[in-house]
Specification:
Oligomer: single chain
Largest sheet: none
Strand content: under 5%
Distance between the termini: 98 Å
Shape: rod-shaped
Structural class: mainly alpha
Radius of gyration: 30 Å
Order of helices and strands: HHH
Helix content: over 70%
Length: 109
């Protein structure tokens, strides 16, 4: 029985040529909407061409980064709101305690 060797994952380093670097630089310099339009209008070649696939891949990365930034901002806002609500709860509890103390003082006098 031949077990063989386990498969070893290898990473291949791919060096981009100048045209590919230019595509990436162009996509990076555009807004997401501009990049979508450029790709849809065939600026980087026909459907499923290597250049279009590269442009689409870069657009996906750009969209993912933008989504991550929006999610982080949303989390930050949520954290601030939670902190504010905790403070408001403490103030409300203090006001209740103070009003109870004042009511007791009125009753006693």
């Amino acid at each position: 029985m031949d077990i063989g060797f386990p498969l070893i994952n290898t990473v291949r380093v791919y060096k981009m040529n100048s045209a590919e670097k230019e595509i990436i630089n162009q996509i990076d310099s555009m807004s997401i909407e501009e990049a979508r339009d450029a790709i849809a209008n065939g600026l980087y070649g026909n459907f499923d061409s290597p250049n279009q696939n590269l442009a689409l891949s870069r657009l996906v990365i750009k969209e993912s980064s933008a989504r991550d930034a929006r999610e982080e901002e949303s989390l930050s806002i949520s954290r601030k709101a939670l902190s504010t609500s905790r403070l408001a709860t403490r103030i409300a509890i203090s006001a209740i305690i103070l009003s109870i103390i004042m009511a007791i003082k009125v009753i006693i006098n």
